[in-house]
Amino acid sequence: MSSEHQLSLFGESNLQASNFDKKELIPADAKIPIPTGVYADMVELAQHCNQCHRCDLGNTRTHAVVGRGSLKAPIMVVGEAPGQNEDETGLPFVGRAGQLLEKILQSVKLNTEKDVYICNVNKCRPPNNRVPTNEEIEACKPYLLEQIRLVNPKIILLTGATAVKGLIGDKRGITKIRGTWMEWEGRLCMPIFHPSYLLRNPSREVGSPKWLMWQDIQAVRAKYDEIVNNEL
């Protein structure tokens, strides 16, 4: 969609008004895009997510699950959608998969309080933890794009095929593309296995998903160190 078309959906009077006026339109209709730069900070974005009804998931949520971690993180982890624990707490990756994710990050000395920001493609839990539909992903995607703008990470880790498809549009299976560096909007992205997949495949043998994840997270740490050293 061209920027002219996008802006025309709001009308000239709205464009001359404050950002708040534009944001008032956002929850009403998923066909109305969210212009980039609408939110001043993550608190404002989170407040709006909890009022959002751009898709039907807003009707069944307990909490919108926006994100956690450092708002200045060099690394962002993007998952699929909240589960029951996340819906109840309003925080992403807090169940068993989240605990495993923490261990994976800690294994290469990455800290969610300083180095990592964690969020999902969708901010509301799909019923019965089903995969979000394309329509639900597209309705929520502008919030994810604003999160990326606000945090401004150098590296984005996409956990699972839904996260990959939701952000960069690649529809290949995760087993084919995991561990591969991709460039998206000037940022480095790497698809990795979702921690829940690793919980279902606990083997640590060479070539197993857990073994492959260990290779991938070491590559992420090495790339992060390379970026930091190049900035010195």
Give the topology.
Elements: H1 3-8, H2 12-16, H3 19-25, H4 42-49, E1 67-69, E2 75-79, H5 84-89, H6 96-106, E3 116-120, H7 134-151, E4 155-159, H8 161-168, H9 174-177, E5 182-184, E6 187-192, H10 195-200, H11 209-231
Parallel strand pairs: 2-3, 2-4, 4-6
Antiparallel strand pairs: 1-3, 5-6
Kindly describe this structure:
A 6-stranded mixed beta sheet has the order 1-3-2-4-6-5, sandwiched between helices. The chain is an alpha/beta fold. The chain starts with a helix and ends with a helix. It has one domain: Uracil-DNA Glycosylase, subunit E (3-Layer(aba) Sandwich), CATH 3.40.470.10. Helices cover 44% and strands 12% of the residues. It has 11 helices and 6 strands. It catalyses: Hydrolyzes single-stranded DNA or mismatched double-stranded DNA and polynucleotides, releasing free uracil. Belongs to the uracil-DNA glycosylase (UDG) superfamily. Type 4 (UDGa) family. Its EC number is 3.2.2.27.
Task: Indicate the radius of gyration in whole angstroms.
Answer: 18 Å
Q: From N to C, what is the helix and strand string?
A: HHHHEEHHEHEHHEEHH
Number of domains: 1
Quaternary structure type: single chain
Share in helix: 40-55%
CATH architecture: 3-Layer(aba) Sandwich
Query: What's the CATH topology name?
Result: Uracil-DNA Glycosylase, subunit E
End-to-end separation in angstroms reads 39 Å
CATH homology superfamily: Uracil-DNA glycosylase-like domain
Rounded mean pLDDT is: 89
What is the general shape?
globular
Low-confidence stretches: 1-20
The CATH class designation is Alpha Beta
Structural class, judged by helices and strands? alpha/beta
* Strands in their spatial order, largest beta sheet: 1-3-2-4-6-5
- H/I helix tally: 11
Strand count: 6
